[in-house]
Amino acid sequence: MNALSRLSPEVRQYLVVTANYWAFTLTDGALRMLVVLHFHQLGYSPLQIAMLFLFYEIFGVITNLVGGWLGARLGLNRTMNIGLALQVVALLLLTVPSTWLVVPWVMAAQALSGIAKDLNKMSAKSSIKLLVPADAQGTLYKWVALLTGSKNALKGVGFFLGGVLLVWLGFRGAVLAMAAVLAMIWIASLILLKKDLGKAKAKPKFKEMLSKSRAINILSAARLFLFGARDVWFVVALPVYLASTFGWDHWRVGGFLAAWIIGYGIVQSFAPLFTGRAQGQVPDGRAALVWALLLAGLPAAIALGLGTSLSAQWVLLGGLMVFGVLFAVNSSLHSYLIVSYAKEDGVSLDVGFYYMSNAMGRLLGTVLSGWMYQSYGIEACLWVSSLFVSLAALISIGLPRHIQAGTSGG
């Protein structure tokens, strides 16, 4: 406690925000794996499993748009704590008797979880902008990369945790245990998080939710296709393929996906070393274009490899590792650029709009993941992934080449 008290107020708040985000992410990753594995075990088709997440993604789109406006009016501390509370409620909704766990009920619980997740993420990402001086872009990039990377590493731990808890406690017991732990985190957050963090000086009007910044609009469009490219094969197609084609059990599926996301998160944390910060530079729109181009052809190459005599496991799993490294750098770059482009007063408005596009990409990718895999197989999912990354690269051509710190990026 003495060491904590010696830290600056900004660093202490950063640690509180990060701890909240970490705790939430563990439950979010575990819940997703629990739902995929549990309902696959019950005999649901890939498309039916994808539909369970439909409201999760739809309400993520709405929440990011409205949540940014709420964060600017109410303060990011309140929107973050509301997100934690809603996730506890969503988890408790899934502790009902198994006969109640019909599709509409699970979809409703997932909708609430989607609202909670995006309130929490928008609040965490927006807070960082306010805790770093406007002229310290290198520090901003480092803090954003650490927050994003550590979050995804823990999401991977959550995937593994979900598989383990399903085996040890069963579906209902696992969800109840997570709700209890997260409720304690929520109480601590109510006490520790700074009041009125991120509240705009002037109350923004509801019509101001849509971004007026050209740079943010372009980055948001690129983000939509970038994350659609990941989720079109990762969300439903990949875990179901591993379980059905490779014959992996819950432990192996959860463990592998966990290891992949942990590695992905670690690469995100070190992305500044790959993109110029070691030479005292911070990335701009050109870097986003270059890294998207490096990723664009990889999913198609994996799809072609699956059609050869090569071992499908080596092709898919090896390709997935390379995809994880390149995608992690792309994601970390985007996360830094949006926080840098966003204007400081009412930062959550710009960040919320951007993550609305992120949620739309996940929604598109999730639905296509179930439908494309069920209809045409995992190779089709991979071809769509390559198309989406190529579109993200094409859009990124319009990004500004030089970042002006503390501006709206317009």
Overall spatial form:
globular
Alpha-carbon Rg, integer: 20 Å
Q: Which residue ranges are poorly predicted, with pLDDT under 50 across at least 5 consecutive positions?
A: 403-410
Q: Profile the largest sheet.
A: none
Individual helix count: 16
Can you give a write-up of this model?
The chain is mostly helical. The protein has helices at residues 2-5, 9-41, 46-52, 54-74, 76-93, 103-131, 137-192, 214-234, 237-244, 250-269, 271-274, 285-296, 298-306, 312-341, 347-376, 378-396. Helix 4 packs antiparallel against helix 5 and helix 15 (347-376) packs antiparallel against helix 16 (378-396). The N and C termini lie far apart (43 Å).
Q: What keywords describe this structure?
A:
16 helices; disordered C terminus; 410 residues; mainly alpha; globular
Summarize it:
The longest helix is centred in the middle third of the chain and has 56 residues. The protein starts with a helix and ends in a 14-residue tail after the last helix. The chain is built from 16 helices and no strands.
Task: Please give the structural blueprint.
Layout lengths: L1 H4 L3 H33 L4 H7 L1 H21 L1 H18 L9 H29 L5 H56 L21 H21 L2 H8 L5 H20 L1 H4 L10 H12 L1 H9 L5 H30 L5 H30 L1 H19 L14
